[in-house]
Amino acid sequence: MHKLRAGMWGTYEKCDTPPALLVSLLHHVRATHPDVAYILWSGDNSAHNVHEVTRRQTVAANQAVTDLLRRVFPRALVLPAVGNHDSHPVNSFPPPTLGGRFSNGWLFSALRRMWRPLLDGRLGGGRRIEHSFEQTFHPYGYYYVRAAADGFRILVLNTNYCYTLNFWTLLEARDPGGQLRWLVAQLAEAEAAGERVHILGHISPGDETCRPDWSHQYSRVIHRFRATVRAQFFSHTHLDEFQVALDGAGRPFSTVYIAPSVSPWTSLNPGYKIYHVQPDTWEVIDTEHWATDLEVANRSPHRLPRWFALASARRAYRLATLRPADWLALTRRMARDRRLFDIVYSTYWGGSRRRKPCRASCRKKILCNIVTFDRSSDRHCEIIKSKLKG
């Protein structure tokens, strides 16, 4: 049997992130973006050979990335979220009420110990923050970070509680870990204090792998507090995607940003995102997708990869602002304009020449995914499909 060999910086086939690639990326970020206000670390640090990875290796993978972040960004505020690959067995997040040998207490205890120092950084290098990490991360996996003087709060969620492959949710289907109740309380408190909120997690509640009932309730919460929630950030798919939350009348009320992967798994150019935020409103006013061409990098294995700005959302997609209405207008243009769709689709994959072709069924799926944030209904999907041309 012919075996593929990975290059120094990884390969487009099913390949996880080589440590040297992550080191290169983080040093590049430190040198190129010295003014980052805070770092979103959205999970999945363990390898994809999920049936060979042990509990000890799962903890070790998280520890290795934590140590690297602390070394490269010793004073930065780093906000970690738990990914579905960060547990053992993979996707296993039992309800916190479940004790005994099935409990995930060992995981949250280990992650709390290693991640707690990441919150000692200062927001934008300035003010210290307060947080609930010690109180709510163990055993729930979610917490808040608050900079009261800046009128800003970040809610870090454990969206593995909505993941359809986390079969433990069948034991506590309505609101595992009381996370939705906690989310409502946090948003009500932020609203009363006049604070703006960013939300971070691993799996988007609008992802097709999120349970429709949980997704529906989450969407209702965000709609209620739409003036308070200024942006949502997730990952999981490895692609650079976005979603627009729509109400029953088709009005957009929130934007969801889904970050690209450092891992080239599969057919991807490794990348990361920079989000430009208006300081007084905490609105996202532009995004930059930075990537490295893996094929080019592997031709010179003894040289560091060249990281470059692949696309600014405002320039590449001709957006006046990045408000939900602008993203919805872009989606409608993508349905009518095949050339524009192909530009956005190329960015999804970090400009990789190995990306999969996107024909009619693929286009429909992507456009539907953008507008179906509430997974309990496909109404908006059918409307956008009716506008499809080319």
Short description:
The protein has 390 residues and is of the alpha/beta class. It has twelve helices and twelve strands.
Q: Could you characterize what this model shows?
A:
- The structure is a single chain.
- This protein has 390 residues and is an alpha/beta fold.
- The chain has a single domain, classed as Purple Acid Phosphatase, chain A, domain 2 (4-Layer Sandwich).
- The chain contains 12 helices and 12 strands.
- The chain has helices at 19-32, 55-72, 105-115, 133-140, 179-193, 212-224, 294-299, 313-317, 324-336, 338-348, 360-371, 379-386; strands spanning 39-41, 78-80, 130-131, 143-147, 152-156, 196-200, 229-234, 241-246, 252-258, 271-277, 284-292, 307-312.
- The strands form 3 sheets. It has a 7-stranded mixed β-sheet with strand order 3-4-5-6-7-9-8, with helices on both faces. It has a 3-stranded antiparallel β-sheet with strand order 10-11-12.
- α3 packs antiparallel against α4 and α9 packs antiparallel against α11 (360-371).
- It is globular and about 55 Å long.
